[in-house]
Here is the input.
Amino acid sequence: MARHYRSDAGRNSPVSTEITGYAVSAFVYLHSLSRDAVYMEAAGRAARFLSRTAWDGARKAMPFELDPPAFAYFFDCGIAVRGLLAAWRVTGEDEFAEAAAALGESMAADFACEDGGFHAILSLPDKRPVPPDASRWSASPGCYQLKSAMALQDLAEMSGNPRFGEICERALEFGLRSYRGFLPGHADPLKVMDRLHAFLYFLEGLLPRAAENRCAAAIRDGMSRVARALREIAPRFERCDVYAQLLRMRLYADWAGVAPLDREAAQFEAGKLAGFQVSDADPRIRGGFYFGRKAGEMLPFVNPVSTAFALQALALWEQCRAGGAQPHRHLLI
Here is the structure.
């Protein structure tokens, strides 16, 4: 799966293992809603790309892009693990579980820092840590890595190997210590909007432990901070995925008993999300969601992750309004 499609140029960006991992999880989620076999076929194809093509078994590495395979990202690896496990749960194919476990072992062995966090990027094939770049959140360790570390908790549940759970606990402690300094994190409000997206990854990563007081408090505090900043920055720049992630967090926090749902805010965010969906005769983009809008003008990127997050957020919102049951956390894309 490509990172995005340029609707102005009519071309895709390079294939990404992270985005392919998200695609597997999205197809599994769509199958859970529709039971349409076409989604499981697509999930299987994407998962086999990760296990057979992208995963370098000899070097025990998952590059974030294959052309060239120059870097591996901790975050991207975790999303690939979560996609592989999503496919394994519904297909029972051992290949996916084995690839996920091997990649999880690589994450635990290769990315750990002495301060309790994880290196953001390793160069390949030598697996040397790339020095952090403070101007780019994705190139530095941070609380946002907790969502990726959820994959290690999933591996602990699957395998019974306590080492995976210990690494996830380490990521949780690091995230809770550091998250208050993540926002705003930049003087440019447009960069702050990008950091809201990453900060919501941290909040999503807290969901498995939402029953714990410190995690519940961080979720409530974090949602309030994101909502306030989003409203302030949106007239200049707004991202589809930030609306989607915030709406999902509101719903999951309500279901978990962490924070009662603000229905007025949820309705507002759902309406904003719907405004990003593409209505076009071109089948390559029809039904997808644009990445974002600057100064009222839509940016020419139809983004698979924005689409996956938005479709799930809107489906969960409709499910909530209809009084449906809470979906399992494993289905969170």
Summary: Residues 276 and 289 are 5 Å apart (CA to CA). The two ends are 15 Å apart (CA to CA). Residues 183-333 form one domain.
